[in-house]
Amino acid sequence: MLGYDVGFGHTEALKLISSSTYAEKQVGYMTTSVILNERNEFLRMTINSIRNDVISRNETSQCLGLSCIANVGGREFVDSLAGDVELILTTPTIRPVVRKKAALCLLRLFRKNKEILMPETFADKMTDLLDAERDLGVLIGLLGLLLGIVQHNSMGYEACVPKVIAIMERLTRNTDIPPEYLYYGIPSPWLQVKCMKILQYFPSPDDASLLNAQLAVMQHILTGTDTVKNFNKNNALHAILFEAINLVTSMDYAHELFDPCIELLGSFLTTKEPNIRYLALNTLTAMAAMPDLSEAIKLYEAPVISALHDADISIRKRALNLLFSMCDASNVHSVINELLNYFVTADFDIREELALKTAILAERYSVNDRMWFIEVVLQLIDKAGDFINDDLWHRLVQVATNSPELHARTAELMFVKLRDEGAANEFVLRAISYCLGEFGYLLPIPASQYVDMLIPLFKGTDEATQALMLTTFIKIALHKGCDQSAMGKIVQVFTEMSKSLASELQQRAVEYMEILRLGPSMRSIVEPMPEYPDRASVLEKHVQVENAESDMAAAIRKLGLSTSTVKAQPTAAGRWKTAARNALGAPQPSAAPDTVGNLLGNSPARQNALPSAPAPMALPTAAGNSVNLDDLLGFGSNAPAALAPAPERLALPSAAPQSMFAVAHSARSVQALPPSSSAAMDDLQGLSIATPVVRAPQTPAVEDIFGVVSESLAVPARARIQPASVSIQPTVNLAECAKRLLTSDNGVLYEDVHVQIGVKSQWQGSQGRLMFYLGNKSEHADLQEVSMTVAEVSGLRFSMQPVPSNIGSKRQVQLMLQVAITSAFVAPPSLQFIYVANGQRCAQSLALPIRVNKFLGPMSISSPQEFIAKWHQMAGTSQQQKIMDVAPLYASGGTESVANALNGMRLTVQSGLDPNPANMVAGSRFVGERCGEVLVAARVESDANVRGRYRFTVASMDADTSAAVMDTLVSALS
Predict the structure, then answer these.
(1) Are 16 and 65 members of one domain?
(2) Does residue 705 have a pLDDT over 50?
(3) DSSP string for 730-795
(4) Domain limits at 749?
C-alpha cells in the first residue's frame, strides 16, 4: 500500500472467498478488494467463486460479490459477470439493497466496456425499471447508472425522459416518500439533482403535458426555495436550486422562468455565505452570454462591483468574469472607470487578467472613439507594468497607426504623460518612445523638449527598450523639424552607444550614425509605418471562455459523437457561447511561424531594406491560460508573476526594430518562465531542507535566460560527454525510469547508494521546465566535483541553473532546466551527471524525459469530416506505420490502457472518430519557433487475433514530427 512489494497468501484468500462462513468470506473479499487491482493476474482465479456468490440465493453473499466487482472489476469481470449483474438489477423479486448494489456495480462495468449496455437492448429495460420501481434507494442507483450512460451517449434513451419527469414530480410534491429519505424535510435532494442533470442531456419535451409538468416542477423549486438558518439544510436546498437553474437555462421553452432565476441569483450576491455568492456569480456569468438576459443581469452591476473587493480571491475572479460578460456599450465607461480604480488595490494574482479584460472592453466599445481606447490602455500599462506583456502597448500602437486623425493627439498625449508623470515602467517608456518617434514631428514644439526628457530615461532602462529608443532617436533626427539642440544630443547618444558591449545596441548606433552622415537622402528609410491590415484583436485571443470543457461536450453531443472522454456537466454556457472553439485553444492556421512581419501585416513588399543584423532569436511565450508554475510544481506561494497567456502572441519584440523602420528583423516576443521560489522543497528520502536551494542569479536581460545558450551550459555531445566510467552503479532500472517519465511529468530519473535525482516538470505550449531534486542520501559523505551538463540537440534550446560543486550529507538542492522547442527532434537530449563520493567516481549519461510529445497541445475538431480531411492531407505528406506488441502492462489493460498511455503522452484521444470501437484516433498539435504550427495525428488499430498487438499509424505535415512521435510511441509502449 505504501509502494513496497507485498506478498500474501493468494490461495488462502481464494479459499476464504469460497468459504461458506460469512466471517471468512468477508475477510477474503476484503483482502481481495484492498490489496489487488484489476491488472492483477490473481483476480482471474476468483471470477468463478465471485460468480457463484452473485447468482446464489444468499443476499449477503450477493452483496459481498457485487461490492468486490465494483471495487476491482476489470475487462475480464465485464465479459464474465455483466450479464449476471444486469439480471439481478432487472429482477423485481430480489431485495432492494441487492439491486441497488447491482446498479452501482453495473455502472462500474459499463465504464470499463460501453458495449455491455447497448440502447437497442437496454433502453427499454431502463424505461420499465424507472416506471415500476418505487424504492428510492434503487431509484438513486438506477438514475446514477442512467446518468453515466447518457454522459457517454444519450441517443436511444429518449423514452426515459417522461419517467424521470414523473420521479421529479413525485419528489417535489413529497408524495410517497419514506421518512428515511427525508433530509431535513427535503425529499431525497441527491435524487432530485440527478434527475435534473439527466434532463440536461435531452432536448425539451415536444409533448405539451410533459413540458408543462417539467416547467411546473422548475417553478416550484424556484419559488419555494429560500435561505434557512440550518447550514446542512441550506446546502441541500441550494444544490437543488442551482441545478434547477442550469436545467432552466438549457431548455428551449422556459423563457418565463429566466426572470425568477436572475432575481434569485441577484439576491444571492449579497448573502453572507461565500459558497452561495460564488455559485451565483458563476451561474450569472453563464447566463450573461444569452442576449435576451443581458439587460436583466445589468441591474445587479453594483453588487457585482462590490464583490470585486471580497476577501475571497475566487469570488473576486468570478466577479471580474461576470462584469466582463455583462458589459456593453451602455455601461462600458462606468465599468472601465471602476476597473481602473480597482486596479490600485487589486491582488497581484488577478491584475494580469484585470488589465487584459479592461483593455478588451475598451477596444470592443471604442469604435467611434479610438482616442479613448488609447487613453485607457496608456493608463493600464502605467498601472500594470509588471503584470502585462507586450501585447497591450502593441495594440495601442496598431490602433494609433491605423487612425491618421489621431496621430497628433496621440503624440500630444504621450508628451504630456512624459512631461507630467514620466515613465513608471518599461512598457510605458516603450509606448511613449514609439509614438514620439512616429508622430512627434506633428507637435508644435521643438524636438529638443521631449528629447531632453527621453535621454535621461534611456540611460536607466534595459537593453530591449534602449534598442527601441535608438530607433526613436534616428526617426526624430531625420524629421525636418528637428532642431540643432536635439540633433546634437542624439549624435552624442549614438557616439556613446557605438562603444557599447551589447552587440545589438552597438550595431544600431553605428548604422544610425552612418545614416545621419549621409543626410536627408536617407530620410525615405524612416518613412512612417503604413497602416496595419484589419484583423481581430490579438487581445481577444487571450480570453478563455468559462466552462470550456462543458462547451466542447455540448458541441460533441450535438454532432452525435461519443463524449466518454469529456467528464463535464452540460451548462447553459454550452448553448449560447459562440466563442467556445477559440476558448478551447483552436489555433489560427499558418504555414510558417508567426514572425514580426506577418503578424503585424508587414509583408516583405512593404518592408524597406535596411542592412542590419537580425536581433537574437528568443523563445516565444507558451500558449494557454496564465499558470503559476511554481504552485503546480509544489513550491510555495511566494512565486513571482505567472506566465502571461498568449494563445497567439503579437510577435513584436520588445526592441521593436520593425516598428520604426519596417525592417524584417527575425525577432520574436519573449517572456521568460519565472524563477521558482526558494520557500519550499520536496523532501526526497528524508533529506534535510535546512540548506537553501541553489538558484540561478536573476538578470534583467531576457537573452541571458532564453537567449543563445552559452558554451558552459550546452555543448555538442561529442565535445563534452565522454563514455561513462562508472564505479558507482545505479540501484534503479534507468530504462524503466525513462519510460515512465514519457507518460508522466514527475518521477525518479536516477538513484544509487549516494544520490537520488527526482524530476518534476511543467509544460506549456512551446516551453517547459524541469526541476531536478538532487539529494545526497549519505549521512557521512559529501558529494564533490558535482556537474550536470545537457548535450545540445537540434530543435531544442536550453538554459540551466548553475550546479553547486559540493553537496553536503543529507542535503538537497533544486536545479531548474528551462527548455523550448524550435522544431521537431527524434533523439532525446542526454544529461551527463558526474560526482565523487568516498573516493569513488560516478559518471552517468541519462536520457532526459524531453520528447516532442511533451510540447503537444489539444487539436480542436469541429466535425468528423474535418478530421478525416486533415488526416488525408497529413498522411499524404508524411506517414509512419509500425505493427507492435505492446508491453504486458498495456496488453492486459486492453485498448483503454493504451488510450490512457496516449493521453499521458499528450496525444489526445478523440472518441467517436473511428467507426470500429476497438480502434482509436488521437490528434494534437505543437508550435515550434522555426517550424510554426504542426498538426499530428495517430491511429491505433488492434489485432482481433493477437491480444496486445496493435498497428500504429502516425501522420503529420512534417516528416520529422511523424518520426519523432512514432519513436516516442515505440519507446513508451514496447
Answers:
(1) yes
(2) no
(3) -SS-HHHHHHHHHH-SEEEEEE-SSEEEEEEEEEETTEEEEEEEEEE--SS--BEEEEEEEEP-TT
(4) 702-850
